[in-house]
Amino acid sequence: MRDTWQDNPVDAVVTWVDGNAPAHRALRECYMAQHLGTLSENASNPHRWTSNDEIYYCLSSIVQHAPWVRTIWLVVDNTTPDLARLPASVRDRLEVVYHHEIFGGFEHVLPTFNSLAIETMLWRIDGLADRFLYFNDDVFLTGPLTPEDMFDGDAPVLRGRWRDLSGLLADPAARDDPACFHGFMQINAGAMAGQPADRIFAPAHVVHPMRRSVMARLFAQHRQAFLDNIGHRFRDLDQFLPQALHNHILIAEDAARQAAATDHLHIRSGQGRGGSGEDVRALLTPDALSGVKFLCVNDLPQLEEVLPDARSLIAQAIGQPDSSVIAA
Fold it and tell me: CA 103, CA 161: separation in Å to the nearest integer?
């Protein structure tokens, strides 16, 4: 089946925030003080809002490896990254969107410091293509990507695996474990789609292909749940993962496909600590990355503790000759 991406375009959406910006930090601390003692570690960890230049690698990698993407929408609160650090080839493809625009009509929930709330409303970007790719800013493309890698016609091609997460519901300690938070968000989304906790499709840490029209339909069908989701300024265990709801609905409707190949690499926070770092370095060699299209680096500063030249390695992985090209 011929992909109709030229007539039916694909956009990219990237979310970004600079938690070190004085205005953002002051506002965040003000609202956190209103929830003193009630926020979980997952909701309040400053790591959630830290920017370490990942955005420059992310944006450059899209233009490098997915030149067919029509528009890259960069979703920010009130502050943008220093776009002058990006080459013109990237800036020309970029459109900046502010939180108050995608939350139009629901501005009372702003400011928000909650990625789940923001992800709930990405589909409301004015002008967004029906088919779009959602990137966290710590996910980079490391090889040529085709539209067919992400969509089979209009059906998103999903990367992940089926998991039994029912044990989280049976373990009282799990609710206080930050490592389990994402699992609960997937369970909540699965429940909305009629999917039991013992069979949840857990997405990999990659780019998420999504359909704007599907999210609009789900908003209409689950309006109160969506409004509850955006009502939390900080992450909360009562929330659902919007991408997971989208995926489970499409899987149930036989309108999504699961990727057969494992073409992604996830370097987790703290990976390689306590060792020489050579195991992690080996993952980032050209030979090891052969066939890998997606690289997620959860915590760049922690990776730099293990590999001081991590930025150069990432730049090479995305096809840039030197890190200074995109991160001065």
Answer: 32
